[in-house]
Amino acid sequence: MLPASIETLLCASILLGIICHYLCTRILPSSRSVLPPGPPQLPLLGNVHQISLEYQHKTFAEWARKYGDLICIHAFHRPILIVSSANVARELLEKRGGKYSDRPYSILANKLVFPKPILGFMPYDETCRRLRKYFLGALETKSAVEQYRPMQRAEIGRLLSDLTHNPKEFLSHIRRYNGALMMEITYGLPVSSADDEFMAFANGTVSALSTIGSAASTLVDFIPMLRHIPTWMPGAGFKRRALEVKDMWAEMTRIPFEKVRSAMALGTAKPSLTTFMLQEALRDSALAEDDEYIISNAASQMYGGGRPSFTLNALLTFFLAMTIHPEIVKKAQAELDLVVGNSRLPELSDRDSLPYIDCIVKEVLRWNPAAPLGLPHRLQEDDTYERYTLPAGSMIVTNIWAMGRDPSLYSEPDEFLPERFQEVDAEKAASQDPRKYVFGFGRRICPGRFLADSSIWLLAANLLATMDIRRARDSVGREVVPTPSFKSGLIRREHLEVEPFECDIRPRSERAMDLITERYAEVFTQDN
Ligand code: HEM
Fold first, then answer.
1. Which of 24, 86, 232, 508 is 20 to 30 A off residue 386, Cα-Cα?
2. CB 496 within 8 Å of CB 487
3. CA–CA gap between residue 277 and residue 294 (Å, rounded)
4. Which of 439, 486, 490 to mutate to test the pocket of ligand 1 (most atoms within 8 A of CB)?
5. pLDDT attached to residue 415
6. Residue 8 lies in a domain
7. How many domains, in total, are found in the chain?
């Protein structure tokens, strides 16, 4: 039992806290400034009790219907501004990029897992700008994109061949396609088989990372002193997991980076994102220890740090949609047969002549956006929008999922309908294009967006040109129609995952088999 005087003191402090919080969030701002509207809050907790662990994008979309495209909620004392319209996001994050390009500080990421900040979690400081400049040169210019085309072509050849030999394992083949492509682009290192030990280890690291929590939204981010809790104490599981992931991440970063450094020293390194970044950094001066850390971690983030899993998710969404909709497969195949014929496989240079395949890719990105709530930004200084005051330090969450369900742009938004992008005028086509928002906004926009978009298109076109995707059958021969089912969560995951499903993939014809064999032989010759 506490002595009566301490009990009284505790009660008085709690009461004072509640009054201060109430004054700060409700009474005082209303006399000077108005926060955007939002659901009612509880003292001290704010809206924490209303934010579910999963599917927050749906709760936030419901709130947007009630309170508007820009709403304000509180997680304890911290204001969170939720933007549900692409136009408002552009107005704030793009046009006023100077104030909106920081990331919220994450104790879990920046203190427990990574010894120093890495790209996705960095503030928008000098280092961040330097890294983004490297990415611009390595991923976003026309010549950079051209440079990756042979790798994309080769990996498509492998994927089609793997699918013909072992179609039941399609999930692991797609995972391999994405991982191998990123490995070659990031490090210039070829991957020999799906069971590659390093890729399996990297996949394990990435999934471990995604289960410990996302940027600035775990309990330790709200109660910082929890990071000092001894690892043996009950309740310290989050810290034990974070420290495990820290070691796994360091290993995943070190192994391929050292291979590239040795190959560079021997003059045998293939051009890659890592060689490009190292050469750029060396241009001005010798490499500082910090440069090595920053570059090696940026590379491992490119390769495996969760972002490319966004592409994987889009590829799986494509397979799911094609399994559910045989009529879309037929329509796309008719377009491919007409434009490309059966004497070769589709190439990225055919893209403009295959508008229906493009509509499918757009609908994949809109229907199940890989990052439904984007990555959070942080407002660096007070700002105003319309009649609202937006306080410095607010976390900005873009509800990309809700943007893709804007009823003024998309009818029947839960349906997979590529036709919605057909025969619309140029203005509507531009505002409907999901690539204008699914990759985020402003100065932190996804640097991998062109690569991701072209990899998804290439896979869609090649797969539809050569394979039939049918529904699997159950033990009594009935077709199994997969239910579109996606897992999500801002707290535990940043992205929406496709739940596993089955489908029946077969080559369309003898000719398709020949084309796959020819491409594979070409790839095999390249490897040797
Ligand atoms: C369909 C695939 C992808 C989607 C939907 C996607 C989406 C996003 C989004 C929404 C963001 C946050 C942007 C913002 O803060 O406003 C982001 C950031 C990022 N993405 Fe992607 N991404 C994809 C693929 C990729 C790929 C293939 C790479 C690597 C080549 C990549 C690398 C990154 C990096 C490094 C960041 C952090 C940038 C920063 O913090 O400055 N992404 N992505």
1. 24
2. yes
3. 10
4. 439
5. 96
6. no
7. 1
Task: Name residues whose C-beta falls within 8 Å of residue 188's C-beta, 6 or more positions apart in sequence.
Answer: 260, 263, 269, 270, 271, 272, 274, 275
Domain that holds residue 285: 16-527
Q: Is residue 204 part of a domain?
A: yes
Cα-flanking dihedrals φ and ψ of residue 347, to 5°?
A: -120, 165
pTM: 0.88
* 415 Cα–ligand 1 center, Å: 25
| Cα 39 from Cα 16, distance rounded (Å) | 24
Q: Where does 286-444 have alpha helices with state H?
A: 289-303, 308-324, 326-339, 355-367, 400-403, 426-432
- What is the spatial distance between Cα 434 and Cα 230, in angstroms, rounded to a whole number? 46
- In this predicted model, what pLDDT tens digit does every residue of 87-120 receive, in sequence order? 999 999 999 999 999 998 877 777 778 877 788 8
CATH of the domain at 359: 1.10.630.10
ipTM score here? Answer: 0.99
- The DSSP-derived string for 66-115 is HH-SEEEEEETTEEEEEE--HHHHIIIIITTHHHH-B----HIIIIII-S
Residue 5 lies in a domain: no
CB 370 within 8 A of CB 313: yes
For residue 5, the model assigns a pLDDT of 47
Query: Average pLDDT of 434-443?
Result: 97
First to last CA, the chain: 77
Q: What is the residue with the minimal CA distance to atom 34 of ligand 1? A: 446
Contact by Cβ (8 Å): 473, 480: yes
Amino acid letter, residue 197: E
Pocket test for ligand 1, best of 307, 438, 445 (most atoms within 8 A of CB): 307
The pair of three-digit structure tokens given for residue 496, joined into one six-digit string:
């929406």
| CA pair distance 283, 280, nearest whole angstrom | 5
